[in-house]
Design a protein that fits this description.
four-stranded mixed beta sheet; alpha+beta; 367 residues; Reverse transcriptase domain-containing protein; two-stranded antiparallel sheet
Length: 367
């Protein structure tokens, strides 16, 4: 800890440099990584010591017994035994999991009123999607190179939860050349066919409390879905390929889901307009819209149409379409996993929305 503080103080003294070319920045990263590693080691030692103490203790050790009971009660403090989904209350641990499944399935289903209101337009889009599918199916795309694969694996965030098969990106990144070549051949077969196998579209969905409202109300939870690692690799490769095309057609005022930009950039233009209105003694109104569960309830054929018109007109379009077709998830709750259910995958990151290049074009204002 002393070493970390010393390096950090030196870094602050030099102006918090974040350029990898500077030695002080590299030292800070190394010391932070080593510190976190030591913390994990010490935590593991504490757990092992506790397990050993339990194994070696006498049967009639009431003190340890009450310690374990107290500890277990602390861990179970967040346990809920009933779940409200709409007007329905589901009781029991198994029914709570069923409630989450029903809630997230409902989120992935477009409201009937919306579909009926725009039925003619929806039918037109579905017809157009059929034409697009025929147009792009024979437009082959370049095979993935070893360099692309390595770059894709490297760009995926490390230290994340395992997928439904118990695999993490670390398994792949440290597996060696033989597995790399095997993955390369497998991914190229998928790109040739233009179809992602259903087994790579099985997500592991964890409900996460939003820290507001009652814990037994389903709408107070958001879903975090972990996709199979190989799906993430394919997604990353496709994203890196199509991003240049998407950025050309992207609305110039868009700030979200755009690399190198963010809310601060959007706030600048709002601030300037506000100041100008104030200087000119003009009325100023700011309207903010929060699209609730926007990506969940969107009709995705409409988004795929926008993607095609954004310039993605080859088998990359087919791959993206395939990723969203027949996608399933298993709900993970209290250490248990449900059976698979048809719930659309929202590739969740800290911002809850897909870090997916194609989506940048799909959320533009309609012209």
């Amino acid at each position: 800890m002393r070493c970390v503080n010393t390096i950090y103080a030196q870094c602050v003294k030099q102006g918090k440099i974040k350029d990898p070319a500077y030695n002080i920045y590299q030292q800070r990263l190394r010391t932070k990584k080593e510190f976190r590693r030591q913390v994990r080691i010490e935590n593991a030692k504490v757990k092992d010591t506790e397990k050993q103490r339990i194994m070696e203790t006498r049967t009639k050790d009431t003190k340890l017994f009450h310690q374990l009971v107290k500890s277990n009660r602390k861990h179970r403090g967040n346990t809920i035994m009933d779940m409200h989904v709409g007007d329905i209350c589901m009781s029991g641990e198994q029914n709570v999991m069923e409630g989450f499944k029903q809630h997230f399935r409902n989120l992935a289903t477009s409201e009937e009123a919306t579909v009926l209101e725009n039925r003619q337009y929806h039918q037109q889009v579905e017809y157009e999607i059929g034409l697009i599918t025929e147009m792009v199916k024979d437009k082959n795309i370049p095979l993935v190179t070893l360099k692309e694969l390595q770059k894709g694996i490297k760009s995926i965030n490390k230290g994340k939860s395992a997928d439904i098969y118990g695999i993490t990106v670390e398994h792949i990144s440290h597996a060696g050349k033989k597995l790399e070549m095997l993955l390369l051949n497998l991914i190229n077969l998928i790109l040739k066919e233009g179809k992602v196998p259903d087994m790579l579209k099985k997500g592991l969905l964890t409900p996460v409390f939003k820290n507001k409202g009652e814990k037994n109300i389903a709408t107070n939870y958001r879903k975090i879905t972990v996709l199979p690692v190989l799906n993430k690799v394919i997604e990353t490769i496709v994203k890196l390929r199509i991003n240049p095309t998407v950025l050309i057609t992207q609305n110039v005022t868009q700030r979200g889901l755009t690399a190198g930009s963010g809310p601060a950039n959007a706030a600048l233009s709002v601030e300037e307009i506000y100041r100008e209105a104030k200087d000119n003694n003009q009325e100023y109104k700011l309207v903010l819209l929060d699209a609730k569960s926007a990506f969940d309830v969107d009709i995705h054929s409409h988004l795929m149409k926008r993607l095609f018109h954004a310039g993605i007109d080859d088998k990359h379009w087919t791959i993206i379409q395939s990723m969203h077709t027949n996608a399933t998830s298993a709900v993970k709750w209290n250490g248990k996993t449900s059976e698979l259910v048809n719930v659309l995958h929202t590739r969740s990151t800290p911002g809850r929305y897909p870090k997916y290049g194609s989506i940048q074009a799909l959320h533009q204002p309609s012209s």
